[in-house]
UniProtKB/TrEMBL annotation:
PROSITE patterns to which the protein is assigned, alphabetical: MPN
Protein family (similarity comment): Belongs to the UPF0758 family.
Name by which UniProt lists this protein: DNA repair protein RadC
Alphabetical GO biological process terms: proteolysis
Record PANTHER family: DNA REPAIR PROTEIN RADC, UPF0758 PROTEIN YEES-RELATED
Domain MPN span(s) in chain numbering: 37-160
UniProt key word Protease: yes
GO molecular function, one term: metallopeptidase activity
Length: 160
């Protein structure tokens, strides 16, 4: 069995064992870049088709970054929790959002339990994220809660 070393013996540099922050930057040549999220339906379709968010067994909180034309420029997972909760840090969201130089964001998470209705924690988290986004001149376009068979849009409900 070969000994695994944290350092590459040829270069004497640390190997990247795991990324601390997963941030998928979407370039123009990527199949994800052609996704223009102009409305809730296109965002829900993107979440289901490309991220399979509705299939996750625990809550997963995701951020989609958009350019001025509402093209997807970056996608990243902020938190992964239990069947009914995920701890979301506003600091962690915007540390990554600022790296993408995006104009607006859509935040989304799933409810594996089946109900698409937002909890008070969901509503309070959305308010916190919206306030932080406004301070940074980034528009929060929507917060979408997705289940296997339904979704809830804060923008459509008029509570964003």
């Amino acid at each position: 069995m070969k000994n695994l070393s944290f350092f590459d013996e040829k270069k004497s540099e640390p190997r990247c064992v795991a990324q601390k922050y997963k941030l998928l930057l979407v370039k123009e040549q990527s199949y994800l870049y052609n996704n223009q999220l102009k409305n809730v339906n296109s965002a829900v379709e993107f979440l289901k088709k490309h991220l399979l968010l509705h299939c996750e067994p625990e809550e997963v909180f995701t951020v989609i970054c958009l350019d001025l034309q509402l093209n997807v420029t970056a996608v990243f997972e902020v938190a992964r929790g239990t069947i009914n909760t995920a701890l979301v840090s506003t600091h962690e969201i915007f540390k990554r959002v600022l790296l993408t130089n995006c104009n607006s964001i859509i935040i989304a998470h799933n409810h594996p339990g089946g109900s698409e209705r937002p909890s008070m924690d969901d509503i309070n988290t959305t308010k916190r994220i919206k306030e932080a986004a406004q301070l940074l001149d980034i528009k929060l376009n929507d917060h979408i809660i997705i289940t296997e068979n339904a979704y809830f849009s804060f923008a459509e409900a008029g509570i964003l």
